[in-house]
Amino acid sequence: MKILFFSKRRPQGKDLVTRSYGRFFHIPRILASRGHQVYLLVLSYRNDPPLRLHKDDVTWISRSIIPWGPIPYLIEARNFVHQLKPDWIVGFSDTYYGILAVELAESAGAQSVIDAYDNYESYIPWLKPLHLVWRRALSRATVVTAAGPQLAERLAGLGAGRPVRVVPMAADPPYFMPLDRRDCRRNLNLPMDKKIIGYCGAIHRSRSIDVLFQAFAILRDQNPDVELILTGRKQKGLPIPEKVR
Q1: Residue 29 has what pLDDT?
Q2: pLDDT tens digit sequence for 170-193
Q3: Continuous H helices in 85-193
Q4: Which candidate in 84, 89, 111, 139 could, as Cys together with 159 as Cys, close a disulfide (CB 3.0–4.6 Å)?
């Protein structure tokens, strides 16, 4: 099959052209490895030169929003769809790309996928007209996927109750691998003889971090040999309980 992805070039600040980051890189790569023709048309919000390259069996095309705004990207996306005649068009990384995928898929007789890794409406809650177009796209897409079950439930509600499939976030293959436990604890100056609970991510009230602290307090009362290790950005002024690293 021919599969075309639309995405911004730097989702979550990571340049997809230079770094194999997240679902935005690995889903196209895996599909290409299974024999599909995969194309990724990305939009840079920086003054990057136009680029076209082939790596990991994926054809990458990058265009910049500078100096003419998004119009040249939209024109190229439309022309490329009618030239390529893809079987599937996938919108990644933001509201706009999901909307674009559905619109162009319908005009070209292709199937469409909207993949969401976050609640995009929360980024700009005041932009109601965009949210209405986004919800309409959710209800018209062939398939909608979400990074987690809570997000999937929300998108199902926004898309007139249509089912949403979960494609979870995961650790990138090159950066996470099994290592010797004792060596890791020794290198990080962690106790060898205690059970450790690890948390990676924003240490922020919006993540309901207080629930983790409460659960740890209960566990600690039952078993003093349990330790909680946090790593991530801490919200300013957020108190960290005693005996938490």
Answers
A1: 94
A2: 877 767 788 999 999 999 999 999
A3: 95-108, 128-140, 149-158, 181-187
A4: 139
Q: How far apart are CA 83 and CA 5, in angstroms?
A: 15
Answer yes or no: are the C-beta atoms of 195 and 227 closer than 8 Å. yes
Residue segments in the chain with a per-residue pLDDT below the cut of 50: none
Residues 6+ apart with CB under 8 A from 240: 203, 230, 234
40 phi and psi angles, rounded to 5 deg: -130, 115
User: What is the dihedral angle through the alpha carbons of 64, 124, 164, 100, rounded to the nearest 10 degrees?
Assistant: -30
Tokens representing 44?
A: 């840079």
Helix axis angle, 71-84 to 95-108, nearest 10°: 40
* HEC sequence for 152-201: HHHHHHHCCCCCCEECCCCCCCCCCCCCCHHHHHHHCCCCCCCEEEEEEC
Residue 221, CA distances (Å) to 172, 214, 228 in order: 36, 11, 13
Q: Record the tokens describing residue 40, joined without a space.
A: 């990724």
pLDDT tens track for 205-223: 888 899 999 999 999 999 9
Separation CA 32–CA 42 (nearest Å) = 17
**Residue 124: how many other CB atoms lie within 10 Å:** 11
Which helix H or strand E contains 73, and what residues bound it? Answer: helix 71-84
- Two structure tokens written together for 135: 């919800």
Q: What is the DSSP letter of 234?
A: B
Token pair, residue 145, equals 């996927």
The two tokens of residue 195 are 């059970």
